[in-house]
Design goal:
By secondary structure, this protein is of the alpha/beta class. Helix content is 33%, strand content 18%. The protein is built from 12 helices and 11 strands. Bound molecules: zinc ion.
Length: 402
Amino acid sequence: MKIKIIAILVLFSLTLSNFSCSRRSGMKALIVTGQSNHNWQRSSIALKYILEKSEMFAAEITVSPATGEDMTGFDIDFSPYDVVVLDYTGDNWPETTRNNFVTYVQNGGGVVIYHSANNAFPDWPEYNDIIGLGWGRDEKTGPYVYINNGEVVHDNSPGMGGSHGQQHEFAVEAYKPSHPIMKGLPEKWMHAQDELYAELRGPANNMEILAYAHAELRSGGTGRNEPVLMTVNYGKGRVFHTVLGHAGGGMFFPALECAGFITTFQRGAEWAATGKVTQEPPAAFPTETQSLRWAFFEDIDSEITSLVIKMRDYETGKSNESFNIFEKLIAENIDNREKMDEFHHIIRDLLKSRKSTADCKKILLNRFSWMADDSYVLIYEQLRQNREFSAEAQYALDMIGN
Ligand code: ZN
């Protein structure tokens, strides 16, 4: 495994040989996470890896107290960092941290707003200015902003901001192809399956839309061209805002693994930190019609990935060793909230996924329902409707008292 990683690094560094000498490296990135309606345990690890793979950043992750826990003491000094990535939506930060954040951006700090981080802090005016647009805001915060016939529309009609249709692949189209983050990338590329955020609203001050996507009606979208990549200038600070990269439960993260998401994320982070982009466009990139998984993604946490794939593909008669290992991991980490959250995500995802075999689902219903909580009820009930699993699903429901 080590040899494989070294080989990949060598290969990767060869592709860097044509970078200019002015390219900065050794910058510091901070990823703030710990509360989210998403799988922040996985996304934050992926974002760290993605940033470090750019060979520009060393990245740290800071994890907040859990939802509802005491936030006093969650003090962050942002000043040592070149870029701060927010993968956080949840309880309010303590006042010191809020003030430190605003001061950091005003003084020229770089920020990346990632996906549902634009759901956070609707009642914090400075945060709304920093992100430009977000979810859960009404007309008091600012207009809906979208693109119609090539023009940016500021729509002041009343209502809440934020929606998305069904997840699907969609084309990302450049609106400012000359911006450093976009320059050299194809002007239209197919993004892997993701939520297409729509009806975002906010102050949108000093905001530039770099790219948009058409939220098609047949996928439950608005029928509009919705902004997906943006920049905001706040004080001396630069903000890159990407709505892409949804990370849901368990194992499968097409949006987060998309080479287009990752490339724009790496370039956006560099731009936020320095105001320039020195990273060359990658050789492998999605085309207008074909999305592309980033080649390096499989190196992240590959042990657990391969374990889950073995469980997913299990059929009666094959070795069930993967489930035994998974059980052991659970027993070893029963007091570790983060690990247990991750394991729950994996189980729920395998139960829901069309890719998992029926035998995999039966084992999960029989052997892992002892650890289930209310978040499993709907999944179990759906499985119970399927004659193939009805007995196992009923057993699992009985285990949690439903
Ligand atoms: Zn999402």
